[in-house]
Amino acid sequence: MADDDRAVLDKLAALDAEVKAEADAHRARKEAALAKLRAQKAAEQAERAAHTKPAQTALVPTRGKKQVDDLGSALELAGKANQVKQELARKPGKGEKSWIKSGIASMALGPVGWLYAGSFREAVPAAAAWLALLALASKILPTLLVMPALLVVLPLSAIAGIVYALQYNRHGGRQRLFGDEKKQLPGK
Predict the structure, then answer these.
(1) Is the pTM value of this prediction over 0.70?
(2) pLDDT tens digits for 149-183?
(3) Domain ranges, ordered by start, for the chain
């Protein structure tokens, strides 16, 4: 029995050594790949630095990591702007709302235009308040005093209408823009 135990222990030791050797080889391949990537990145940076004009480098302040973070943020913002551009450029499909129609309706009618694509929980009270305010203002204030307020409120309403339509298309239903996100019910 002792010979059998010794043979099993020898096999276990051999397997353990094999696993360790394989892990060491994997670690070495990983380190070599990382070193190769670092060398490529350094070569790319050196090539970019060589192609940069001296006048440009004098104008750009050297801020190190902050400059890289700013560049990353700018690229991220450009990517988001490109996504929005693509979303605005595509035609609305079946069951989707047109952001152009929503923006025009909200510009012309104020919050009443939000009823096209907005959450009824927000659009109905806003539309009622808007109509009441217009009725009250038409009785009390002259048109000359109301016009400057409309020049501010109506473009903001159009922006909200566009955002409502984009949210509707993105989520497949009416979405709230205002209020606490945690208190919103799904699909409301």
Answers:
(1) no
(2) 888 889 999 999 999 888 888 888 888 887 765 55
(3) 1-60, 61-90, 93-183
